[in-house]
């Protein structure tokens, strides 16, 4: 099956009958450091390059630009709306059921689109609702909120029934939290995907196997490792793209170690959403459909797993639903 992946056609089926392209563009942006128009230009170029999957979130503060780029590429005839797969995310402060639909509607309003293809619970950790995304008390401590993931999920199911979203998924959920949804009495729509950190240094074998058994597609974020920003990245891990094994396999294929890391996941059926606003990198990350890793190379790369997360989110480790205390 994997050999048939092409730049034009690299979607895999979701359990609800929809499809998801295996390669997408991540649009995470630090609003304080990203000049206006950056996200717009990146998404526009990505669609021109051949990307058909855009991963965004309200909390990236750029959904208006992302939506504008998608609409401009539709109106100039490059793509039709149904060719583009957009994933939006429900942030931690919007978990209470009555806030779910208005929040999704806000995303649709920013994008100026009628529906999103996938809408996911960004994290299993609820924060106190209000006008700030990162509520803290006077001592600077995060203010959490009682979490009822099943109630949040029911509100999402209603959004799907009303046509605001085609598919529903989650992100950063561990096995126990996935089971909570899968065993919910009266479950109408199963989560089709779980977006988690996934790359050669953190291959997620147990979670991947559990999700496969339950027909849940893994979407891998930080598929190239991450930035080296010490404020939120675990730097105990060396820069992954300099790994000797990846570099030598890349040389053999006349590719970069980044392209090898992406190809590795795609060949395992893991969706990758590398974020880049750099035009050359956006193009380079897309050029992974003209070579194939051998079984031996796949095994070598699997052997690089260090079980170390770059993205630990330790500032929320005391939340009752912090997902990473569990083995998987």
Automatic annotation (TrEMBL):
Family statement drawn from the similarity comment of this UniProt entry: Belongs to the aldo/keto reductase family.
Site (Lowers pKa of active site Tyr): 89
Active site as annotated: 60 (proton donor)
Domain called NADP-dependent oxidoreductase: residue spans: 23-305
Gene Ontology process terms (BP): bile acid biosynthetic process
A GO molecular-function descriptor: Delta4-3-oxosteroid 5beta-reductase activity
Chain coiled-coil ranges: none
Record-linked Pfam families: Aldo_ket_red (PF00248)
Descriptive protein name: NADP-dependent oxidoreductase domain-containing protein
Top-level division of the source organism's lineage: Eukaryota
């Amino acid at each position: 099956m994997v050999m048939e992946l092409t730049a034009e056609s690299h979607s895999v089926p979701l359990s609800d009958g929809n499809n998801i392209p295996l390669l997408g563009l991540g649009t995470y942006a630090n609003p304080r450091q990203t000049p206006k128009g950056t996200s717009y230009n990146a998404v526009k170029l990505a669609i021109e390059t051949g990307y058909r999957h855009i991963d965004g979130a309200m909390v990236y503060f750029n959904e208006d630009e992302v939506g504008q780029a998608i609409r401009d590429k539709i109106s100039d005839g490059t793509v039709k709306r149904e060719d583009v797969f957009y994933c939006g995310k429900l942030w931690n402060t919007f978990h209470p059921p009555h806030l779910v639909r208005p929040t999704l509607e806000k995303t649709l309003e920013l994008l100026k689109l009628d529906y999103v293809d996938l809408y996911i619970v960004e994290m299993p950790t609820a924060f106190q609702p209000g006008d700030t995304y990162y509520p803290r008390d006077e001592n600077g401590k995060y203010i959490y909120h009682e979490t009822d993931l099943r109630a949040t999920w029911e509100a999402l199911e209603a959004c799907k029934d009303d046509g605001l979203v085609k598919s529903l998924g989650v992100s950063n959920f561990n096995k126990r939290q996935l089971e909570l949804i899968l065993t919910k009495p009266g479950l109408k729509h199963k989560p089709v995907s779980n977006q988690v950190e996934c790359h050669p240094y953190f291959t997620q074998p147990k979670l991947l196997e559990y999700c496969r058994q339950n027909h849940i597609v893994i979407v891998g974020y930080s598929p190239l490792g991450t930035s080296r920003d010490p404020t939120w990245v675990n730097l105990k891990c060396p820069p992954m793209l300099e790994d000797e094994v990846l570099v030598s396999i890349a040389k053999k294929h006349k590719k970069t170690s980044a392209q090898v890391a992406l190809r590795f996941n795609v060949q395992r059926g893991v969706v990758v959403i590398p974020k880049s606003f750099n035009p050359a990198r956006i193009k380079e990350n897309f050029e992974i459909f003209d070579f194939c890793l051998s079984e031996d190379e796949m095994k070598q790369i699997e052997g690089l797993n260090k079980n170390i997360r770059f993205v630990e989110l330790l500032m929320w480790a005391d939340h009752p639903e912090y997902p990473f205390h569990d083995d998987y």
